[in-house]
Structures are given as structure tokens and as C-alpha cells.
Design a protein that fits this description.
single chain; 529 residues; alpha/beta; Rossmann fold; 4-stranded parallel beta sheet; 21 helices; 12 strands
């Protein structure tokens, strides 16, 4: 089970104590769930998820689920958006240098905008992530008089639900590494790489460090037990995996001091943690690291495993705060080698107090408190409720055409004329509507601008200007996303691509004409002489 699966499984178990919980997952989830109802669904098939949604009072979901089931936006159920995984930033790195990078990133941005628009409550994994999300929500218009008026801290809009630790310690049920894995002896020391090999992670520094360690100790082994994502269709094998294997082979370490596996089941993972001596979590200097929350670092804490980590992410701060190992600079081969050797000989009591404090502070029960509090009193976000109230819509189980019709009914000047019959400017009409929505002029008044009349935000190629709909951002985006963009945008992209090629051809032709003109002028000048 990968990080997201672990997160939702553990949160479901904690939430199941005060509530009735259904955990829906694609495929066929095989988990021991005494208190959690399990159901499976097929991505994109609403009839496979609808039975689980029926009767639900709140839904916790990630961006992919919204992309597969956009009708959840109209289900009339409070939506809790989990933004712990910065997918758009991961996508930039994952598809860097490939022809599909732009398309993949654009799709991720579309999902991100959908998340910002439809969420009633947002959770993320760290205060750093919360700062990022506050910026996204402000840009999407979700930081407004309604959400701020309800709670100036905006904790009722977005709060932190990090990864947590199970309350009971890991149990060792069978030998999996020492004396069992070919090439690893019963007395060897194991440096464990938790999790997969993704493009933003740095296994190369760990392998180069092992080459230095080998010169001083022959009994230290580096193990990557799970190098591939279990869902290969969604997350393919990444180039960094092959680069790591190739480097280990070039340095003469492969299957001698460095070992690679495929994947480890969630049930088997505690065995690897208990048998290891040092945990590793290294990454490159990317913006992904700035926002990342490495769940495997929490696994090391759970097992009391001293660790060597790269600085820059939120979990490296946890390691420093509780004194759980060594925090290194990016790609510091010598530093990582020295840190591993130092931790291997450190007395067990060196880190005992830090691990005990961390395990008390970082349980799933404590991590889930904001989520539990919301689920006790699930509600619509105040700004989303205000929009529905303004349109006199009792819930969102209504199609885009009906929403548009009600907008026009609510507009006293839908035809662009004033009561006196004079033609009014679109900006004036939008200004009046905007005043009505936010309660008139005053200190909190937001003046309308020309671009606020755009039915589509400026970063799209469409430039339609529709009065009335412009300032009603949430409704406008609904109409576009649900009814227009999915049909029109692909065609516009093709047209835009064609236009760029035509413009390039015209530019090339203009340059060629200029060159010929200069040659003709030169011939004429020489001929006159």
C-alpha cells in the first residue's frame, strides 16, 4: 500500500470510533476492517460509487476522486478536500523532458482548481502546506468576507491533518532481511530505504555513500525493498529507479552491498522496519521537497529507527525537533556516509527519549482531531452556502442550465437595459450585481474591473465577455467546467496549436522575404556601380 492508501486506511480506522465510516477504494481492497465498511469502485463509473455515497453526511476525498466523479460536487454533501500530496509539483518532475509533460500538468492544474472550488473544508499535512493552500484558495476567491467572517484564522476553512503513528508498536512476525535476503547475513547492519523510488527522491547519494562505507565496513547493506508503485498503470516505473540500479552496478555494489526489491505489502512492512538499523530519506533540492511530507519518516519513528534525512521538507524538521538522527544537506555523499556509520555505533539510549516524545505527540488520534471535529458537525462552507442562498438554490443537485436560468432571474438587468430603457455598460451591470452579493458599498467593497466580466479566467485562450455572469465566479466556473470546457477546450487547443504553426510559417516566410529583399537591393546596388 502506497502513502495515500495508508493515510486513508488509518484515518478511516480512527474515524470509525465515533462515526460510521465507509472506505471506498478502486479495485478490490483486501483489508482487515472490523469497524470500517469497505467498498470498491471503478474510476469514472458513477454507478459503482453511488451506493457508498447515498446517506453520507460528509465525504473525504482527494483530487483524483473529484476528477473521476465530478458529480460529487452536485451531491449536496459537505466535501472535505485532502491536499496533503502536492500532485501538480510531482507531475512537473515526473514527466520532465517528455512530450506529455504540458498536458499532464495542465490536467493536474484543472483538478487543483476543481478542488479549490468545491471544498467545504480542506486538510493538508503540515503548516507549510497550509500556507501554500491558503495562497491557492485566496487566488480562487475562497478567502473572502464569508470564510474570514466565520473564522479569522481560517482554520475552519483549512487545517492540518498530518500523517500519524499507530498507537501500538510494530510487531515482528517473521524474518525478511537478515539471514534471509540473499547477500545479507544474520549479523549484517541494514540501512533501509522506505517507500518507492520517485523522480524527486535521491537514492544516488545513498548508493555513492555506500561505496565509501564499503571501504571501512563490509557488513553494512543498503536495501530498497519497494522500488515500484503497486499501481503501475497510475504510477509507472520511473527513470530514477533504473539510474539507481545502473549506478550500483557501476560501483560494484549491486547484490553485494545494495539490494533492490519490488514492493512490500502493508502487513509485511513492520518486519522490515524492526530488522533495520538505520532509515534513509533523501531527496533533491526541488519545490516538491519544500511541500512534501515523507510518510516513511513517520514509519521510522514508529519503529524507533534512527535516520539520515535530507533537509528542506517538513519531516526533516520533525527529525531535528525530536533529535531522531542526522539531517544532511542536498546530495552530501560524504556527510551521509559519515552519518550512517555514526548512527550504527550510537548507543540505543541516545535517541530513546526523542522517540518516546515523538510517538506520544504524533499519533493518528491526535493528527485526526480537526477532521473528527468537522465530522461531528459537517457543514457547507459559508461562502458556498452564501452563493446558493443568493441564487435561492436549496442545494447543488441542479444542472448548469438551471443555475444559469436562476442567475438571469436574479438579475434585474439581464437584457442590458436599465429601468429607464437606457443601455448600460457590462461593467455597470456587473458592479450592481457584485454590490448586491457582498452587501453594498463600504469598507469591504471590492470594485469590479473589466476582466471580472470575463466568463473564463484570463489564463485561458477564450476571451468571451458575458455581463452578469462575470463576478459570480463560482457559478461561472461551474458552468464552464461542466458544460463548455470539456467540449470546447480540446478544440481550442488544437486550433491554438494550428495557429502557432501557421504563425511560425508566416514568420519564416517573412524572414525569407526580407532576406531576398536584401539580396535584390544588394544586386541593384552592385549593378548601379
Amino acid at each position: 500500500m502506497a502513502g495515500p492508501g495508508i493515510r486513508y486506511w488509518e484515518l478511516a480506522r480512527v474515524l470509525a470510533r465515533p462515526f460510521q465510516v465507509t472506505l471506498a477504494a478502486p479495485g478490490d481492497p483486501q483489508l482487515p476492517a472490523a469497524d470500517v465498511r469497505l467498498c470498491s469502485y471503478e474510476p469514472g463509473r458513477w454507478d459503482s460509487l453511488a451506493p457508498a455515497v447515498e446517506g453520507t453526511e460528509a465525504i473525504l476525498l482527494c483530487g483524483d476522486v473529484l476528477a473521476w466523479f465530478p458529480m460529487l460536487e452536485r451531491a449536496g454533501i459537505p466535501l472535505i478536500v485532502d491536499g496533503y500530496d502536492p500532485h501538480p509539483l510531482e507531475t512537473l518532475e515526473l514527466f520532465a523532458g517528455t512530450p506529455e509533460q504540458e498536458h499532464k500538468h495542465r490536467e493536474r492544474e484543472r483538478i487543483l482548481q476543481m478542488q479549490c472550488r468545491v471544498g467545504d473544508f480542506f486538510v493538508c499535512a503540515s503548516e507549510r502546506q497550509r500556507d501554500w493552500w491558503l495562497g491557492l484558495l485566496e487566488a480562487a476567491g475562497r478567502v473572502n468576507v464569508h470564510t474570514y467572517g466565520e473564522d479569522p484564522s481560517l482554520r475552519r476553512l483549512i487545517d492540518v491533518v498530518p500523517f500519524g503513528l499507530p498507537s501500538s508498536p510494530p510487531r515482528h512476525t517473521r524474518q525478511v532481511l537478515k539471514g534471509v535476503w540473499p547477500g545479507i547475513g544474520p549479523e549484517d547492519k541494514v540501512a533501509l530505504w522506505g517507500g518507492g523510488l520517485w523522480q524527486w527522491l535521491d537514492p544516488l547519494t545513498a548508493i555513492r555513500a555506500m561505496a565509501q562505507i564499503r571501504e571501512r565496513r563490509d557488513d553494512v547493506k543498503l536495501v530498497f525493498p519497494g522500488t515500484r508503485h503497486p499501481n503501475t498503470e497510475a504510477v509507472p516505473d520511473m527513470p530514477i529507479h533504473q539510474a539507481a540500479v545502473r549506478l550500483a552496478e557501476e560501483l560494484g555494489l549491486l547484490d553485494r552491498h545494495v539490494f533492490f526489491g519490488e514492493w512490500v505489502s502493508y502487513e509485511e512492512w513492520p518486519n522490515y522496519l524492526v530488522e533495520a538499523d538505520v532509515g534513509l530519506s533523501l531527496h533533491f533540492d526541488t519545490v516538491e521537497a519544500r511541500l512534501a511530507f515523507r510518510s516513511r519518516v513517520l514509519d521510522y519513528i514508529w519503529a524507533g529507527l534512527p535516520m539520515v534525512v535530507t533537509r528542506g521538507d517538513a519531516t526533516s524538521g520533525v527529525v531535528e525537533r525530536y533529535d531522531l538522527g542526522a539531517v544532511m544537506d542536498y546530495e552530501d555523499v560524504e556527510g551521509v556516509a559519515e552519518a550512517i556509520l555514526r548512527l550504527l555505533v550510537a548507543p540505543e539510549e541516545t535517541f530513546r527519549e526523542g522517540f518516546e516524545r515523538a510517538r506520544r505527540d504524533l499519533t493518528w488520534e491526535k493528527a485526526a482531531r480537526p477532521l473528527i471535529e468537522f465530522c461531528r458537525h459537517p457543514r457547507r462552507a459559508p461562502d458556498r452556502k452564501a452563493m446558493l442562498d443568493w441564487l435561492e438554490i436549496p442545494d447543488e443537485s441542479i444542472n448548469a442550465e438551471e443555475i444559469e436560468r436562476r442567475i438571469r432571474e436574479r438579475s434585474a438587468h439581464a437584457d442590458g437595459t436599465s429601468p429607464s430603457g437606457e443601455i448600460e455598460r457590462p461593467e455597470d451591470i456587473a458592479e450592481d450585481l457584485w454590490k448586491e452579493m457582498i452587501g453594498g458599498e463600504g469598507e469591504g467593497h471590492i470594485s469590479i474591473r473589466q476582466r471580472d466580466c470575463d466568463i473564463v479566467p484570463r489564463h485561458y485562450v477564450i476571451d468571451w465577455r458575458v455581463p452578469i455572469l462575470g463576478p459570480v465566479h463560482a457559478v461561472v466556473r461551474r458552468i464552464i467546467n461542466a458544460e463548455i470546457r470539456r467540449y470546447l477546450f480540446p478544440s481550442l487547443e488544437k486550433q491554438s496549436s494550428f495557429n502557432r504553426k501557421v504563425m511560425q510559417a508566416l514568420n519564416d516566410l517573412a524572414r525569407e522575404n526580407m532576406r531576398l529583399r536584401r539580396e535584390i537591393e544588394e544586386f541593384q546596388r552592385v549593378g548601379l556601380k
